Structures are given as C-alpha cells and as structure tokens.
Amino acid sequence: MCSSDLLLAQAEDMYNALQKGQPTLYAKIGSGIKTDATHAELWEVTLPHHLDCLEKLCDANAGNFTSTGNTIGEMFLWGVIHQVVLLDEAFTFENRPNLRKYYERIGAMEKTKEVLEGQSPAGSMAQYFVAGPLH
After folding, report:
1. How much is the average pLDDT of 82-87?
2. Which of 64, 93, 117, 121 has the lowest tally of Cβ within 10 angstroms?
3. 115 Cβ neighbours under 8 A, 6+ residues apart
C-alpha cells in the first residue's frame, strides 16, 4: 500500500466516523445510528486517534505526507480534515503543528481556494457536518 492509499483509507475512516456520530445538514442526533454515545465516542476517541496518527506521519518541515505533497490521498484527506476544522479548529490542531502546517499548505493552493469559493468547475465545498449534538 502506498502512502496515498494509506491517506485515502484514513480519510474514509474519519468520514465514516463523522457520518456515524456527527449531525449533518440532513440528519440530526437521534436519527439512524447517530446517538449521544456515538457523538461522544467520535470526539473523545475516534477523531483524536486519527488526528494524532496523522500528526506523526506528517513531515514537520514540509507539511507533506508524501514526497510530492499533493497526491490524491493528501487532497481527499484535506477535504475531510476541512470538515472537522469547520466544526472545531482548535480541537483539530491542538498539539498537532505538523497537521496544521499540512492543512494550511493545501488551503493556500490556488485550486483549493477556487473550490472553497465556489469558483471551480466542481462547484464549492460547503460545510456538511454541523455542530452538535442536535436533537
């Protein structure tokens, strides 16, 4: 498994955990599998574990996970981390300076800015997960 694939898997795991425990624009806590318990587990166990692992994998000097710094895995992971940042930026980067450097590096790219501003051919990347728990 190459580094990009590893990052894709990490991002998918984080996204699946968010789907399970975080309210969205369309599903609040109490709908489906989203409960107070899954929400608490997400923020107390699952997200800290993933973010801490990513912090250790990220190059402290360049803010990269790979030699190029812009693989598919790194871009997809950035999108998932961005959704977490929209919920709680301080939590996301607490004691994680390497991860912050990576996030800021990708966020500063012109193509990333275009997506965030809704000026890319793909449209915008809006907030999907909302603060919670909402009942």
Report:
1. 97
2. 121
3. 122, 123, 124, 125
